[in-house]
Amino acid sequence: MSNRVWIGMLAAALIAGVSDAAAQDLTARGAPAQPPTALAAEVRVAFNARGVTASAARGLADRATGRVVSDADPVRIASISKLVVALGVMRMVEAGQLDLDADVARYLDWPVRNPTFPDAPVTLRQLLSHRSGLIDPDEYRVPLGDRLADVIARPALWDAQHAPGRHFRYSNVAFPVIASVMEKAGGARFDRLMQQHVFAPLGLDACFNWSTCSDAKIARHVVLYRASGEVALDDLAGKRPDCPVIAKQGCDLAGYRLGENGALFSPQGGLRASMRDLAVIGAMLIRNDGSFLTPASIAALERVAWRFDGANGDTSGGFYCQYGLAVTTLPTGQTGCDDDLFGDGRVRVGHAGEAYGLRSGLWIDRAAGAGVAFFATATPAVSKGRSAFSVEEERLAKGE
């Protein structure tokens, strides 16, 4: 990158309102290498139990304004959201509001049953570990005014070959069911429960679908672009969206009945958080000091509930081979598994994300007491690395 281009990027950052500290941080790192495409933004933050140890950011958060991305900018982190939802569930379990092994229908006003196995209860533990038997429909977003119960009542959404708890199949639609259960047990909307149980206790300005984030945080949003260059999502022009949910007619959330549609705030992938925010979560997990969750609860999240044995689940091409409660364990070393993201054989726990041209990751090496959080935008739909992960994920995981 030429000095002229780099100076222009730095000036754009200052004009767009990036803090002096952020600008100084960029200057201290020197002119970074150019992102893979002119539209891409990439951020990588390394951390330990005490906090951030290293940070790197490059590219544009918003190409329309020329705003340079920083490690404090919130982005839709995709399926890492599931791990964060699990933190909220465990906080409610510790408060006595939820039971991981209870039939979730006991919390709801509607049944959650596989029609082929009508006598088998479905539990939060099964939903969190993708062993409930739920199968994603082509569209698992459910607009305001529709009922999630009507969606999951379709026989096509259930595995007719395996009873709940017997088979792994990654399911986004399982997390709206979890969110509905949380609402009924907690007496508040899912987005507000997550603010109460996770974001506020950790001191995070993070949110689902922009609903509880501050205006200042929203002004720093990262626009998601596809590799083709088109805007995929969150082109907010610095402002809070008029409606934080998908709505067929109007946006009257005041009339929403708790537990009716846990899909509204996209619990499967709709968390907006910066990589510094994820580093706070990762550092908390590494410390494991009982200040947020008990060590027993964190152990329950990370304990492998399912491990691929060659026939007991769908690995998505060797990507998922060990899974706890919304926590992936890497690598597996089993035939049919290709999940050594870091390429060093060391055990790590965390979660990956992919949606709207973004790829992301939050990974912890417990033995080393260290972790990394990262994302890249404008990534190609097919980007096979040496593992089942993408080239972008492998590069950012290792800090290359």
> What's the count of strands?
14
Helix-residue proportion: 25-40%
Instruction: Give the helix/strand class.
Output: alpha+beta
Radius of gyration, taken over Cα atoms and rounded to an integer in Å = 21 Å
Strand content: 15-25%
What are the segments in which pLDDT stays under 50 over at least 5 consecutive residues? 1-34
Strand order of the largest sheet: 3-2-1-14-13-12-11
Gross geometry: globular
H and E order? HHEEEEHHHHHEHEEEHHEEEEEEH
Can you summarize the main beta sheet?
7 strands, antiparallel
Look at the structure and give the mean pLDDT. Answer: 91
Distance between the termini: 17 Å
> Number of helical runs?
11
How would you characterize the overall build of this protein?
It is a single chain. About 25% of the residues lie in helices and about 15% in strands. The chain has 11 helices and 14 strands. The chain has a 7-stranded antiparallel β-sheet, sandwiched between helices. Helix 3 packs across helix 7. The two termini are about 15 Å apart. Mean pLDDT is about 90; it is low at about 1-35.
Short structural summary:
The protein is an alpha+beta fold and 400 residues long. Helix content is 27%, strand content 16%.
Descriptors for this entry?
400 residues, alpha+beta, seven-stranded antiparallel β-sheet, three-stranded antiparallel β-sheet, 11 helices, 14 strands, disordered N terminus
